[in-house]
Each structure stands twice: as structure tokens, then as C-alpha cells.
Amino acid sequence: MKITIGSSALQKRAIQLSWFTICYNIVEGLVSCYFGLEKDSIALVGFGADSFIEVASAVVVLWRFKGEAGFSAPLALAGERAATRIIGWLFVLLAAGTIAGSAFKLFQHAGPDTTIPGVIISLLSLSFMFYLWSAKKKVARALNSATVEKDADCSLACIKLSAVLLAGSAVYSLTPLFWWVDSAAALVIAFLIGSEGVGTIRAAGREDFSGGCGCGCSSAPR
């Protein structure tokens, strides 16, 4: 991966966006898990747990990019491959746990107390993540950076999860008779998370692996 000469301002911008992503996901994960457990929403709990894994993924990206930008020593490729593989398995385990929880809720014919927190959190996430995705894509193009582009792909994955959470939460809020919607949304979220995990594990096992964010995107060098 090559970075254009005289692009220190863009490099710093990319690092700032990564730090903002990390800080936002920590807050989002804590709030989502709290309200998910408080309101008995399996979809919101799964969404919040995913935020914490995304933090680990973003840290790998940040470390990699800071090394490429000359701000710190590069992360050893073997260590990054192992970290990426672990992140992938965390996604898979989270997906399995979410599926199990959703199946249990469906078996009980139980819905959440309310999905209003899910509506609010998903709307906030959509606005912030759309901004981050757009900003990262611009920086990635300007720097011709595969690492920043992978980070942008992770933000796009968060947008998809937020959209699913919003749809499920909104439907249940408008029509509480659809008690199964929250569990159904959780299953879709689990599918997306699981796909992300499988893609990440496969990417980490590729011979041409050159580092990445653990979002299941291609790791081929640019």
C-alpha cells in the first residue's frame, strides 16, 4: 500500500476519523447493551455487542495505518493476521449467541418491553456512521489507501446493522402485536455479523493477506 507524498494532513485526518469511530462505538455499545438488557431486546443487545467487536477491529486498522503513515512502528503481519482471525471468530461466536437468544425468545413467544431505545440508537448510529463512511471514503481515495478504505467498509457494515435495527424497532413500536419482530431483526443482524466473521477469517487465511480491519473485505494489497 502506497501513500501519496505530502499528504500528512490527510493521514492525520484518517487517524482522527478512526479514533472517533472507536470512541463512538464504545459509547454506542455500552448504551445499546444497557437498554437491550433493561428492555429485554435481543436485537439491541446483539447490536451493542457488535459495537465492541468493531472497536477491536478499528484498533487494528488504526495501528496498521499509523505504522504505514510513519507515526509508529508497523504491526507485525503475523500478529495482525492472528488478531484479524480472532476478531473474525468473535463475530461468529456473537452471531451464534444472538441466534440462540432469538430462537429462545421465539420459542417463548416473548417480545421486548419497548423498542423505543432501539429506534433512537439506530437513528443516531445511521447519522454518525453515514458521516464516517462518507468521510473515510473521501480520505481513502485521496490517499489511495486500502487500509482506510477497509475502515470505511466497516462503517458501511455498521450502517446495514443500524438499518435492520431501525426497521425492527420501528415496526414493533408501531404494532406491538408483532412480538416476533425484535427476534426476527436479531436473526438478520446475526446473519450479517456471521457473514462478516466468516469473511474476516477467510481474509486472514489468504496468502496475500496484507493487513485489514476484520470486516470481511478483501485484503489484497493495492
Keywords:
222 residues; globular; disordered C terminus; mainly alpha; 6 helices
Strand content: under 5%
Measure the end-to-end span: 5 Å
The SSE string, one letter per element, is: HHHHHH
Radius of gyration: 18 Å
**Care to count the β-strands?**
0
Whole-number average pLDDT?
A: 82
Helix content: over 70%
Number of helical segments with 4 or more residues: 6
- Which word captures the global form? globular
- Biggest sheet character: none
Low-confidence stretches: 1-6, 216-222
- Number of domains as seen in the coordinates: 1
What would you call the structural class?
mainly alpha
What's this, in brief?
The chain is mainly alpha-helical and 222 residues long. Helix content is 77%, strand content 0%. The model is unreliable at 1-6 and 216-222 (pLDDT under 50).
Q: Could you characterize what this model shows?
A:
It is built from six helices and no strands. The protein is mainly alpha-helical and 222 residues long. α1 (8-38) runs antiparallel to α4 (116-143) and α4 (116-143) runs antiparallel to α5 (146-174). The longest helix is centred in the middle third of the chain and has 32 residues, at 77-108. It is globular, with a radius of gyration of 18 Å.
How are the SSEs placed, and which strands pair?
Layout: H1 8-38, H2 42-68, H3 77-108, H4 116-143, H5 146-174, H6 181-204
